[in-house]
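Could you help me review a protein record that somebody else here produced? What it holds is a sequence and that sequence's fold in token form. I need someone to confirm that the token line plausibly describes how this chain folds. Take the sequence as given and treat only the tokens as open to question. This is what I was given:
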Amino acid sequence: MAGPVSKKILLVGASGRMGLAITRAAAESRQLRIVAAVDRPDDGVRPPVQGRDLGTLAGLAPLGVAVGADLDAALAGAAGNGETPDVMIDFSSPASTAAHLAACARAHVAALVGTTGLGADAEAAAQSAAARVPVLIAANTSVGVTLLAELVRAAARALPAEFDIEILDAHHRAKVDAPSGTALALGRAAAEGRGIDHDAARLPIDRNGPRREGGIGYSVVRAGDIVGEHEVVFAAAGERVVLGHIATDRTIFARGALRAADWLAIQSPGRYSMVDFLGLKTAV
């Protein structure tokens, strides 16, 4: 009896940290194959990647998939190894996300976006694309972080309002956005648990003076090669509740993205999250 048909992936942001991690993780999968790869054109600063084999870039045997720059061609099956993808996985630039989602909608290809630092244009594009294709946007594709967000939401709902909320966020020195998308997602989960507006409750990182009651604070570390560490501290007089997650290997994000993409490719059009993929529900 024939086995399940493998899902075909278009990888965007192919030569970045996550792109290469996903390439290596996909090489071990029987359910998924990368059939096309896209990265930004040669910028004259980094070593050029256009036309190079994705497997070679990732330190693997050649995959027969050359990195290109034309997303529409890749979505149409006119790039990579010539196959039409089932799902796009995008870990590229927030400035490009809206255009990538619109292209997926035109091509009727599911879209999973792990890029962080997204703006209002990406959210509007996601809403529009979701009318035609399944769309999943995740600030963090780790299964553990997805569970952490649900625990944070439950804790914020259960604990009295006098517990201050502070989110500690540590990443490698090259990470641009601060706080990270994951930290902000945890802050939003806490705000949802308390039934308050996150943006109104968010405290500035460079705050001075006494802490504003009911605020959600962020503390940021950018140093060395830290993969990703997050703690959510609920602190009141005489006690603290601390929930956290430590990533020691970027592979966890790659594997989570691949598992979610495998699931997303067969969903109906609409907006989805990692919580939907895992089937988690916060305890009341």
